[in-house]
Amino acid sequence: MDHRAEIEWSVRMRQLKNLLTIPFLGLILLLAVAAQTELKGAEPSPTNALPATLDRQEVEFFEKKIRPVLVSQCYSCHSTGAKEVQGKLLLDSRVALLAGGETGPAIVVGDPKKSLLIQALRHEGLEMPPKKKLPAETIADFERWVSRGAIDPRVASAAAVPVKKEIDWSAARAFWSFQPITKPTPPTVKDTAWPRSDIDRFLLAKLEEQKLEPAADAERLTLLRRLSFDLTGLPPTPAEVAAFMSDTSGDATAKLVDRLLASPQFGEHWGRHWLDVARYAESNGNVDNFLFPHAWRYRDYVIAAINADKPLDRFMTEQVAGDLLPAADAQERNNLVTATGFLALTSKPRPQNNPDYALDLVAEQIEVTTTAFMGLTVACARCHDHKFDPIPQREYYSLAGIFESSRMLHGDGGNKNNNNKNVPKSGLHTLTSDKPAQASKDDKDKQLVAKVAELRKEETAARTELEQLIDGAKKEFFAAEGKALNNKIKNPQNVKQREKLLQRIEQNLNVEQKQRLNQLKGRLVKLEEQLHGGGNGEATGGFAMGMADADKPVTGRIRIRGETQKPGDTVPRGFVTVGSIGKPLEVSSTHSGRLELAQWITSPENPLTARVMANRIWRHLFGRGIVSTVDNFGTLGEKPTHPELLDHLATQLVANKWSLKSTIRSIVLSRAYQLSSAHDAHAMEIDPDNTLVWRHSLRRLEGESIRDSILLVAGELKLTPPTGSPVSKDGNIEVRNGKDREFSRFEFDHRSIYLPLVRNAEPELLVTFDLPDTELSVGDRSVTTVPAQSLFLLNSPWVIKNAQALTARVFAHKNTDVDARIDYAYQLALARSPRPEETANLRSYLSSSTSTASADSEQRQAWVRACQAIFASTEFRYVE
Ligand code: HEC
Ligand code: HEC
Question: CA-CA distance, 180 to 614, in Å (whole number)?
Fold first, then answer.
């Protein structure tokens, strides 16, 4: 939050508090002010001006999806380097795009339909590029790009960071994040009485340098609410408030922290943080948006792992290579393969007419792996050496070799309806039943397992027969057509030709053979459906998305400009070298190398991983990372504000056996975490962004917490997790015909992490409150403040329903006195008592909106509006 927004916020906050003190003028005023208690600032507006700092997600989107197309498809006729510029239009800078050519501006920012460039791509009037229409998906990318503000770093960052022609290795090795992690000694501070821990010493030393004083300690009630939200995503209940406030022992806070860390709600809250990084979702998104009926198992794996405080190095290893780890029993095996869902949950591009399909999947796996664990944008080196970080293209393809030697098991999207026959069938992991061996149930399981084995046999037989049939036809065909053709078809680069030939060969079959061929094909589809169809497969233990090794590992191979059809040198499978200070691991010749990759990522010699993970934790407790670009520790990222503190935390994390809970515990018990968020004009002047942590930052709750809090306060929240996901009931169908609306408005009373998370149909409330893009790994959610958020809270029937439930709760309170009810409503919703003026005002509002004091239904109506206003208030949505 910048300085002005900050002041504005405190003014609004005061207004809000006043709102509950000045006489209530009824609903109109209430709603108007609630709508107004908004922070101005980050509202995206369709202007041509670029935001001062470019959104990382958007820049990456441009670099990966837009720039390469412009360069390869348009620059030859529309750039300063073109022999002759066509249509007087340049497409090599944003300014030029906005200026446009003969007809006018090429894009209207925020409005793809009105953008000439989009019309040209869609062949509406103009036809660009002139030779051939681009794939539907590419056009969709351009539309998305324009509607999201046409972010284009070709001016902004080129000036700021020089693009290097060649990698300067010695400079690269000197870059801060590639240095080995040090074990810094805590600095000496002047005010020795203040620090409670080393964390405090590192922070205080910097404050003293700037002659700043830390704010006072937060009030206990504030601290309780903060801890409760930060560790579980839920507010404290009145009983919890009472228990904490009456505990006068010296270690009351430590006990509270331990209780919160041990509650199952901890894993649900911190699991959601990880799901952002894992770009978790339950459908493919993109053009073919079919459901992933088994994705929820990965979600549940994450929650359970975090609740069990699984060491983070193990947690990471399992997600990259769980299928390659030994398992003690069937249950562990289930968990391990489910963990690899991390790599399979990606949104896949359309496979048809996409020769790069396999490489696109690999690119996404490289991106999520290196970003999530190491804060490195290795995926930028797919088409050219990384332009900013020391990652040559050949190292990208060393890493790619590891993923090319693996298989992604993402299910048979859409096959059930047969409307997606182009989506490759990939299978799934079959899980073993972990149900206790009940006699009858056990028999049933056994029967099912036997049935699956039988189906598999049948499948193999059908496949073999089919192959033999085609092989026979091939031989005949080539005997007639000659050897030259045979060579042609064998050349892996002639994909299309091969397909055509295959069709011709199949046409050569006689009637009987053709019949058999069709029979077999049909049989195979049916079998696969039965084997890993849409059902939950409850009895067998179900299915999970994930990874497996390919039959044989392949050698890595450079692809020029990232294109499959332009193979370059071969490269041995391996890792990026700049991040590994120790000896690089040798990749196994019999396996994909994912296990070695995981070991390399989590090795204590890897300077990035522990830093990145410690920083991710800090980010969620302070609202801002020590490295503010939590997903980018490279040249384009920010430098750490407290490098020594970061190394201290990273060292501690490793020393504490990568325990997430101990790391959180030591941070929240520091004095720095427990500061008040009070405003200070002097400190504000010197450090408006609070990078030095002179106080605690005010933070808006995440959408999940807002929804969960409303449910909890209304008395409606079910704390028991649901089994599976609403998505699994539908099988692997494609999301269309109103299904998207159904999912985005789906409601139940479980916590938000369990809502169906379908790409392009994400829950409305979460989207309104900044759910990140489910196609990208995001560790740093942005916080926008737009009128749509207040409007949502004021108009949503779901919010009104919960305001009614809260009213019912208030009316059921044993003390029916109005003041007592008001007090109870405040306790429930805001974890505090109302101030006397607040009580007086709400009382007068309630009596003024009822004609006769006894009219119970009118009373209730007035109460519902008051409860809704509380849900819509800033105080409800913020944690101090
Ligand atoms: C082979 C040359 C060539 C390539 C490649 C090409 N264009 Fe064009 N473009 C033209 C010509 C020629 C015109 C002038 C209009 C016409 O005669 O159709 C034009 C005009 C345009 C215009 C309208 C300009 C105006 O203001 O009238 C747009 C927009 C455009 N191109 C977009 C693109 C995009 C986007 C690409 C790449 C995806 C592309 N073009 C690739 C030749 C090309
Ligand atoms: C799918 C291929 C592809 C990917 C992935 C890709 N680029 Fe590029 N990029 C290109 C092409 C093609 C060019 C133009 C030719 C060149 O400079 O090599 C280019 C050019 C650039 C340039 C301009 C270089 C100059 O000399 O002015 C920058 C900067 C850049 N890319 C950054 C990135 C970043 C950062 C990423 C990752 C977020 C990325 N690229 C990912 C294909 C890609």
Answer: 15
Handedness of CA 674, 679, 682, 685 (dihedral sign): positive
Distances (CA, A) of 3 to 7, 36, 246, 685: 6, 19, 37, 8
What is the rounded (10 degree) CA torsion for 778, 780, 785, 791?
50
Determine the average pLDDT of the residues in 11-15. Answer: 44
Does the Cβ of 117 fall within 6 Å of ligand 1?
Answer: yes
Position 864: which residue type? V
Residue 292 structure tokens: 């992933």
d(CA 207, CA 628): 18
pLDDT for 161 equals 53
Instruction: Give the residue, by CA position, lying nearest to ligand 2 atom 28.
Output: 387
Mutate to test the pocket of ligand 2, among 71, 387, 391, 629 (most ligand atoms within 8 A of CB): 387
Encoding tokens for residue 774?
Answer: 């489910």
pLDDT digits (tens, 9 = 90+) for 93-122: 888 888 889 988 999 988 999 999 999 999
Question: Which residues neighbour 675 within 8 Å (Cβ) at sequence distance 6 or greater?
Answer: 214, 215, 216, 217, 218, 693, 694, 695, 696
Average pLDDT for 140-168: 74
- The torsion region of residue 418 among left (phi > 0), alpha (psi -120 to 50) and beta comes to left
From residue 751, alpha-carbon distances to 301, 699, 716, 718, 754 in Å are 16, 21, 10, 7, 6
Question: Which two structure tokens, joined as six digits, stand for 40?
Answer: 């101005």
In this predicted structure, the answer to whether residue 22 has a pLDDT above a threshold of 80 is no
Residue 694: its pLDDT value, please? 97
Cβ partners under 8 Å of residue 99, min gap 6: 90, 105
- How does pLDDT run across 526-540, given as a tens digit for each residue? 666 565 543 334 435
Number of Cβ atoms within 10 Å of the Cβ of 491: 10
**Where does ligand 2 bind, in terms of residues with CB under 6 Å?**
60, 63-64, 67-68, 71-72, 163, 377, 380, 382-384, 387, 561-562
Spell out the residues 6+ positions from residue 495 whose beta carbon is closer than 8 angstroms to its own.
355, 565
Which tokens hold the place of 418? 């047969």
Question: Residue 442's pLDDT is what?
Answer: 53
CB 582 within 8 A of CB 617: no
- 341 in Cβ contact with 544 (< 8 Å): yes
Q: How far is CA 264 from the centre of its chain?
A: 21
Residue 396 phi/psi, 5° resolution?
-60, -45
